[in-house]
């Protein structure tokens, strides 16, 4: 059994209010895609607010930004869900619903097994990635860092 799991945050700023008809396909599929994640091998946990999704969760200094925060067994489980399940069909169409951004919209990092990251912790990692690039503190799927060993735990805090 692993001592660490993979946490991930991705953020998105909707082009329209979630009640706008142009967002209906995205909003109407939240439960289905979230259930797909929860049933996927390697899924551990996800942030949930009102209505069994995270659209009501707030990032203090980023009004209107939607967070998606989850924990996975490892990078393989995460990538399999994101890129090989029906989730990918929505990922490919994100420009239809969300604004483009200059900075990173996603960050990943290793957490001790059983830890449930907060939005504040996750945003701190995202900001660190934006300022310093990929490192053990925060990375991306295509520029990832290996799971730490018990001796590396000091590296887990930015």
Summarize this structure as a short list of keywords or feature phrases.
158 residues; four-stranded antiparallel beta sheet; alpha+beta; 5 helices
Overview of the structural elements:
- The protein has helices spanning 24-28, 30-39, 75-84, 87-91, 119-132; strands spanning 4-12, 43-46, 66-72, 106-112.
- The radius of gyration is 15 Å and the shape is globular.
- By secondary structure, the chain is α+β, with helices and mostly antiparallel strands.
- A 4-stranded antiparallel β-sheet has the order 2-3-1-4, sandwiched between helices.
- The mean pLDDT is 92.
- Helices cover 28% and strands 17% of the residues.
- The protein has 5 helices and 4 strands.
């Amino acid at each position: 059994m692993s001592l660490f799991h993979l946490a991930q945050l991705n953020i998105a700023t909707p082009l329209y209010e979630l009640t706008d008809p142009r967002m209906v396909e995205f909003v109407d599929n939240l439960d289905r895609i979230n259930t797909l994640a929860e049933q996927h091998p390697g899924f551990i946990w996800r942030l949930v607010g009102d209505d069994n999704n995270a659209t009501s969760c707030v990032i203090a200094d980023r009004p209107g930004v939607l967070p998606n925060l989850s924990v996975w067994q490892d990078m393989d489980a995460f990538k399999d869900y994101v890129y090989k399940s029906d989730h990918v069909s929505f990922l490919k169409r994100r420009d239809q619903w969300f604004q483009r951004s200059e900075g990173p919209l996603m960050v990943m990092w290793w957490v001790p097994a059983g830890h449930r990251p907060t939005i504040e912790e996750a945003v701190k990692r995202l900001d660190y990635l934006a300022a310093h690039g990929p490192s053990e503190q925060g990375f991306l799927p295509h520029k990832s860092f290996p799971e730490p060993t018990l001796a590396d735990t000091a590296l887990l805090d930015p």
